[in-house]
Amino acid sequence: MKNPPREISLYEILQSREQRQQHREQLLEQFGKPVVCLVVNQPGAHKVTEASSLVFREGQRQIRKLKDIVLYEEERLLDTGWEGFWVIHQDPFELKQQLIEWEEIHPLGRLWDFDVWDPYQGPLGREQMGVLARRCLLCSASGAECARSQRHTLEDLEKKIRDITVTWLQGKDDEHGGAKSVGNGKSCGAA
Fold this sequence. Notes:
- With 191 residues, the protein is of the alpha+beta class.
- It contains five helices and five strands, in the order H-E-H-E-E-H-E-E-H-H.
- It has a five-stranded antiparallel β-sheet with strand order 2-3-1-4-5, with helices on both faces.
- The protein is globular.
């Protein structure tokens, strides 16, 4: 029988964020090229779930489409969730635009959080690209605003995430892989 996901504290989340930032800084210094970091938008205290693993693996598959310009790749599975790091030899603004398109178009894209850091300009945000902030999964308000105010219940957010992943697994969007991209649709190869 599988163990239930471990509950993560706010302290652990903040500590993980700080360690991610330190690692990103090391990669920027070492390579002098843009660094992409991927984490999964997974609300609540359970960060490593079947759905979050599936979402991460598909985001990783998308990045691998850039294989000719990827200089470095690393993934980590921590109690606080999946983390992916890529150093990419591409103009950082073009790269950010590509990742925004994936986040907007791909059926799982709303669940990805791709950050691009340029060694000279720092983080590139959607506002710098002339793109609106991300919307909430459940309403048309700003996602950040809803998260801060806890406008929606965790149960409603988790249900929406399940609905998104199940729909994708059913292969309703063949253009983006659907179940075929994870083999039989039952496993994403998570550790």
